[in-house]
Amino acid sequence: MTPAPKPLYVPALRMKSGELEGLLQLAEDVKEPTLPHLIVPPRGERDDELQRALMETESVPGAGIVLARYWAGRRALLDLQYLFQDFGETGAGIWLPKAFELARRERILAVPVASIADLTGARAQAYKDAVVGDPLRLALRVASGELVEPSVADRLKQALDRADVAPEQAAVLVDFTEADFSQPELVSGVIEGALEYLEEIARWYAIVFQGTSYPEANPAAHGGDELVPRNEWKAWSMAVQFGKDTGEHLVFGDYAADCARMLFGKSGGRAIRHYRYTTPSDWFVVRGAETGDDTTVMREVCRRIVGSPHFAGRSFSAADDFIHRTGEAFGGPGNSTNWRGINTGHHITRVVRDIGTVKGLQFGDRKVAPATKQFEMFG
Question: How many Å is the Cα radius of gyration of the chain?
Fold first, then answer.
C-alpha cells in the first residue's frame, strides 16, 4: 500500500451491489482521489447475493471479501454501525477487529468509522484493536448538532485517547443529515463555523463535510423528469469559497445520488425505472413510463438523457457510455443493480472532475468504441 493521499471526495455509500459496481467502473484517475465511506448493511438487507458473501461466516462480517472484487489495493472508510445487533455487543471485541483484519488480508486498507459514543463507551477497546498504523487510522463520525455541545472538544480528545490515535491520524466526518438545505447560503455559514471550530480543537488528517439534499421520495412522475438542485454542493462550495484551495481544509462528501436515510430490509416492490443523472449543479431525474418492458422503458429514459443539454458525453465515464449505448439500442438496458451502478459511477466522476478541475488537475476522457454491437458493462 502506498501512503494515503489526501482525498478530494468522500461519498457515503450503502454497500450494495450497485454502488460497488459503480466504484469498479470508475476510471483510475477518478478512483485515486476518491475515499468511499462504505456503510455495511445488516443481515436483513434485500441484496441477497451480496449478503451471502458479507455474512459468509456467522461470527465475522466478510466485508473485505466482498470489497476485494471491487476496490482491491485501495483505502475505504468501513462503517459497521448497523452490525452490532447481528453479531452482538458482547462479542464485539473479537468480531469487529477480525473484520478489519480480514479486509486488510484482502488488500483493502479499511479504516474504522466510529462515533464519539463508540470510542468512549463499551465498544472502545474493540475499535482500538481494529486500528492499524497507517497515516489515516480512524474516522470519527460526528453529527453537526454535536458540535454545539459545550463538552464536545473534551469528548473528541477523550475518544482519540481511548483509540490511541493522534488527531493528525484521524478524519472527522461531520454529518449534516439534519440540516435544512433549502437555503444553502444559510447552511454554508454553519458549515464554515463547524470547520473553524474543529480546526481550533486540533490539526486533523482531514475534516469531511457529509450531507445531501436529495429527496427521500422519487421527485419525478412516471414518464417525466425533474431537475433537483444539489444544495449540499452549493452550500459546501460557498463555505469553502470554491477555488484552487478547495478541499485543503474541508473535504466534500455526500451520499452520491441518494438520500441520507438508511432504510434496510426487504422491500418486495418493483424497482423504479429511472436514472439520477448528476449535473454540475443539479440532479436530472429521468423516470420511465409506468407500463412497458424494461428494454423499451429504459431505452427511452436513456434517449431523453442523451438528447438533453445535461448529457456530459459518452466519453465522460463508463456510465455515460452505457447510457448512450442503451439509448442507441446497442446494449442494455440492464437491471436495477446496474442502474444504481450507473447513478453512482457518473455521480462520483462528476464530483471528482469538478473539484479536480478547479484545483488544476487534468482528467482524461474515456476511450469509447463504435456502438455497433451488444455490450456488457457489468460482465
Answer: 20
- The DSSP 8-state label assigned to residue 148 in this structure reads G
Distances (CA, A) of 217 to 87, 285, 330: 31, 12, 31
* pLDDT tens string 237-278: 999 887 777 777 899 999 999 998 877 655 556 789 999 999
Given this model, what pLDDT does residue 59 score?
A: 84
- pTM for the whole structure: 0.93
Residue 213 region by backbone torsions, left for phi larger than 0, else alpha for psi between -120 and 50, else beta: alpha
Give Cα separations from 339 to 25, 275, 276, 286 (angstroms): 13, 7, 9, 12
Quickly list H helices, 203-253. Answer: 231-240
Question: Residue 131 has which C-alpha cell?
Answer: 486500528
DSSP classification of residue 6: P
Four-CA torsion 305, 211, 185, 196, nearest 10 degrees:
-140
The residue-averaged pLDDT of 21-31 equals: 96
- According to DSSP, the β-strands at 138-143 and 109-115 are parallel
β-bridge pairing 274-278 and 12-14: unpaired
User: Any idea what the Cα angle at residue 194 is, between residues 239 and 36, rounded to 5°?
Assistant: 75
Strand, coil or helix: 303: helix
- Find, among 164, 253, 252, 166, the residue nearest to 201 by Cα: 166
Helices (H), ranges, the chain: 17-24, 28-31, 48-54, 63-67, 84-87, 92-105, 116-120, 124-130, 152-163, 184-201, 231-240, 294-306, 318-327, 336-358
Q: How far apart are CA 61 and CA 147, in angstroms?
A: 32
> Would you say how long the chain is, in residues?
379
In this structure, what C-alpha cell is assigned to residue 191? Answer: 458549515
Nearest to 255 by CA among 10, 11, 51: 11
d(CA 201, CA 189): 19
280-to-231, 254, 359 alpha-carbon distances in Å = 11, 14, 16
What is the distance between the alpha carbons of residues 274 and 285, in angstroms, rounded to a whole number? Answer: 7
8 A C-beta contact, residue 97 and residue 36:
no
User: What is the C-alpha separation between 340 and 319, in angstroms, rounded?
Assistant: 10
